[in-house]
Design goal:
The chain is of the alpha+beta class and 244 residues long. The protein folds into two domains: 104 residues, Archease, Possible Chaperone, Chain: A, domain 1 (3-Layer(bab) Sandwich); 126 residues, no CATH class. The chain has eight helices and twelve strands. It has a three-stranded antiparallel sheet with strand order 3-5-4. It has a three-stranded antiparallel sheet with strand order 7-8-11. Strands 1-2 form a two-stranded antiparallel sheet. Strand 4 and strand 5 form a beta hairpin. The longest helix has 19 residues. It is globular.
């Protein structure tokens, strides 16, 4: 079997896949695919290494946890990675990731990859101390034309979803599909008629983020609340949208 990584179109933006004869190498290839979403990995020097570990109850969740862990490490260390050595012992993963600090001029990062949102319940030791009695704040952003929501983590989420919740509604169509269906200028004018101002250097970016490109955020928030993953606290209406 060949060893490689690839991207594929997915409703939530883009899918990543690692293929290899062994599970360990397939996980490593999936990690390379993740990093290749952000930048050209040929431009990432493998000069520095960090140790990474995670665990989960099955292989599918272990892959999600592995990729989420790398997203966290890249965000907090401001690094990019391009090479990985992975060992898996049962449901415990231990790895070394090689890369270098982010240099915007050199790496020209295209996107920031997002992961799951913490949803620690009231009293959890890892929740922010000032809000520990209420639970971890969970921010679920809407699209440019919809409301956003503040929720709080629940004790039930610890058992149901490893103390996590969604971070947004999720895309209903890919960015490519959105660009075919919407025009940035029309989206700006439509939202201006509703009193929402958009500032963006890219009409293409506005089209990609059109309200119709996303699922119904209110329905997603209701589902999170009704399932016990997080409880609703506040609903926020947009007035100004700034797109980078």
């Amino acid at each position: 079997m060949d060893t490689y990584w690839e991207h594929f179109e997915h409703g939530a933006d883009i899918g990543v896949r690692g293929v290899a004869p062994s599970k360990q190498e397939a996980f490593a290839q999936a990690a390379v695919a993740l990093c290749a979403v952000i930048t050209d990995i040929e431009q990432v020097a493998t000069e520095e290494s960090i140790a990474v570990s995670c665990s989960a109850v099955d292989d599918e969740l272990l892959l999600v946890e592995w990729l989420n862990t790398l997203i966290f490490e890249m965000a907090t260390r401001r690094m990019l990675f391009a090479r990985f050595d992975v060992e898996i012992y049962g449901q415990q993963l231990v790895a070394t990731a090689w890369g270098e600090p982010l240099q915007r001029d050199k790496h020209q990062p295209a996107v920031e990859v997002k992961g799951a949102t913490r949803a620690y319940g009231p009293g959890h030791a890892d929740a922010p101390e000032a809000l520990r009695s209420a639970g971890q704040p969970v921010l679920i952003g809407g699209s440019m034309g919809t409301a956003s929501y503040i929720l709080a983590g629940t004790t039930a989420s610890e058992q149901q979803a490893f103390s996590s919740a969604c971070h947004g509604a999720g895309r209903a169509m890919s960015r490519h599909q959105a660009r075919r269906q919407y025009r940035g200028r029309e989206v700006i004018d439509e939202l201006a008629g509703r009193g929402i101002i958009i500032k963006s250097p890219s009409l293409r970016g506005v089209a990609e983020e059109a309200q119709g490109a996303y699922k119904n955020v209110a329905a997603v928030v209701d589902a999170a609340d009704q399932s016990g993953l997080a409880r609703k606290v506040a609903r926020l209406e947009p007035l100004i949208v700034v797109k980078g």
